[in-house]
Amino acid sequence: MATAKTPRETPVLPDEYLTPEDIASKFKVPLETVYHWRKKRTGPPGFRAGRYVRYDPVAVQAWVVEQSELDAA
Prior knowledge:
Mean pLDDT: 89
Largest sheet: 2 strands, antiparallel
Distance between the termini: 53 Å
Number of helices: 3
Shape: globular
Number of strands: 2
Strand content: 5-15%
Radius of gyration: 17 Å
Structural class: mainly alpha
């Protein structure tokens, strides 16, 4: 008996990914701080698109929530 395959769900991509400059602007921190967070893996998760670093706005929002919860503890 053959089973019907369910189609793979296509991930929903954001309309626009954020740049390190966007992150610095949104959090009102120096750009160097954003690069430091990335190096130490303490800031919002970013990824490389070729030679460029980009941030998914949903992942950045999740990081903000996580940081808020850590501060509340």
